[in-house]
Amino acid sequence: ELLLSASFDGTAQIWNGRTGVADGEPMNHGDMVYDAVWSDDSSLVLTYGRSGTARLWDAASSRPLGEPLSHCGRVDGAVFLRGRPVVATCSRDGTARLWTVPAPVTTLAHQVSEQTSVMTGMELGDDDVVVRLLDVSEWRSRRDALETARGTTGP
Predict the structure, then answer these.
(1) pLDDT at residue 112 is higher than 80
(2) pTM to 2 decimal places
């Protein structure tokens, strides 16, 4: 069983309810988080607070999805609309807004990574920080594999 917490330190955290151990990295909202809520299927987390924003997060990776959902005043409430890909927020600025939840990406992450490395001749290292240049033979091999997967051939 997973639990979700919100904190005035600017983070939300998913916890293992049996062990009390944090499950993944904290979701760093950036300012006081008044609340954090799960989507119907628990794949997304919605945080909101004093910063004047709500944020959508991928629960599995603790990474933000898209840009912050911004208001001109602090956000006092946010919910997922049941059964719909929509979030509703309300703010101290007197507004309530509806936001469309982005559809999940259907392309596998490794396919995007391969396409990017072929287009740029570079790839991210295992730590997602260091960029490594591909040598010519490695680039050609990846290009050929990508073209074969697409059903096209290169020179």
Answers:
(1) no
(2) 0.69
